Structure formats: C-alpha cells, structure tokens
Amino acid sequence: MIEQQNFGFNMWLLFSVIMVWAIRLTYNWAKLFGGLSSQDWRYDQIKAFNPKLFFLTSFTGIMLFPTLIVFVQLIPVAELAGVSQNVGFYSILGAVIVLLATLLEWLSDSTMQKFKKDNPGKIINVGVWKWSRHPNYLGEIMVWFGLYFFHVDAFGLTYNIIYPIAMFLMFLVISIPMMERKLLKKYPEYKEHKKKVAVLVPFIGVSFRKHED
User: Fold this and answer.
1) 8 A C-beta contact, residue 98 and residue 17
2) Which of 63, 142, 170, 211 could serve as a FRET partner for 69 with CA atoms 20 to 30 Å apart?
3) Dihedral through CA 29, CA 34, CA 40, CA 44, nearest 10?
4) Are 103 and 69 in contact (CB under 8 A)?
C-alpha cells in the first residue's frame, strides 16, 4: 500500500503534469461527445475491411490493444510510487515535455475544430497543422516519453524505454496509416498535401510514401 507521506516532490510534480494532461483530454472529449448514437470512424473502416471478423478485429484492434499499450506505459510510472527523492534534471525535463505536449494537443484540437467550422470540405493547413500532418498524435507520443523521463531520474535508463517506443510505433504503423487512408479517400488532393507537410515531426519524413496509394 502506498501512503501519502511516502510521496516526494517528484511524485507531486509527476501527478500534477498528468492531471493537466488528463483535464485537457477529458475536456476535449466532453466538448466533442456526440451522444451514444455516434460511432468512431475506425469501427466503420475495420468493418469494411472484413465484415465477418468485425467483432474480433474491433475488440482486439480498438478496445483491447490500445488499453493494454496505455497500461504498459504506466508501468514505469507505477514503479515510481513511493520513491521519495529530490527532483532532478530528467524529472524537470519530463514535466516540460508533458506540458508542451499537452499544449500542442490543445492547439491541434482547437485549431482543427475552428478550421472545420469555417472551412468545411477543406484540408487543414494552418497553425501547427501547417508543419505536421498529425500534431495531435505527436503530442500524445511526447506525453509518454515525458513521463518516462521521471523514471530515468530514479532508476536510470532501463528497458522500460521500450514502452514509449511501442506507443510511438503504434501511431506510426497503425493509427497514422488508418487516418491517412481515410483522408486520401475523402480528399484526393491530400496526396499532394503529404508531399509538403511532415508526417509527425516538422521537416522530417515529409512524404509517408508507403501509404500514398
């Protein structure tokens, strides 16, 4: 059992940045919630791919796997519980990364929502979206790497680095290709857009060529 008196300032800093991230995430969900009748587009895409296996693919691909990968991200965080120590360089760096990532996600979402309202049927190319095709995904990846730096402060660089790397690969191999296919189908001109805007990090990997067609 972990008691409050065992928490050091490093844990309070960790929980504070997690709380800021969680509040932003929850607020954005509540703002966009369309009721129980609305359905995420990923279900439709997975069902169209193989209707007969829809129950299995939706359960594993949308419900189970994302839940498990978030769970393993929290393993390094759980190992910090009860470890009382002074805040070091990597904890401060981690906190800054998480806060910047949360700001990036907020800018991504708010800019997208305003653009879609003012420019229906067009591809967003303003604000942070001018530099990255998926700045919201970049922000989410940054969050988990930021939290890992808290773990580095206490235990050094360990095998736990595989967890945020796994999250990065999930976005790169699964989430981004799914979103790219959706956008290419909806906006044929998106193919040209991909040649001008980086997939995640600005100026790096401008064309995600594997999924252009």
Assistant:
1) yes
2) 211
3) -170
4) no
In this structure, how many other beta carbons lie within 10 angstroms of the beta carbon of residue 119?
A: 12
Measured in residues, the chain has a length of: 213
SS3 state at 208: coil
Rounded to whole angstroms, the Cα distance separating 131 from 127 reads 8
CA distance 158 to 167: 17
Mean of the pLDDT values across residues 10-35?
90
Give me 16's structure tokens. 């504070």
State phi, psi for 141 to the nearest 5 degrees: -60, -45
- Nearest Cα to 104, choosing from 127, 123, 70? 127
Q: What is the pTM of this model?
A: 0.85
The tally of CA atoms less than 13 A away on the side-chain side of residue 80 is 29
What's the average model confidence in pLDDT over 204-208?
60
Quick one: average pLDDT of 205-213? 49
Q: Is the pLDDT of residue 147 over 90?
A: yes
Alpha carbon distance 208, 197 (integer Å): 10
Residue 208 has a pLDDT of 46
Task: From residue 90, give the alpha-carbon distance in Å to each of 8, 95, 97, 147, 159.
Answer: 15, 8, 10, 10, 17
Q: Which residues pair with 198 in a beta bridge?
A: 132
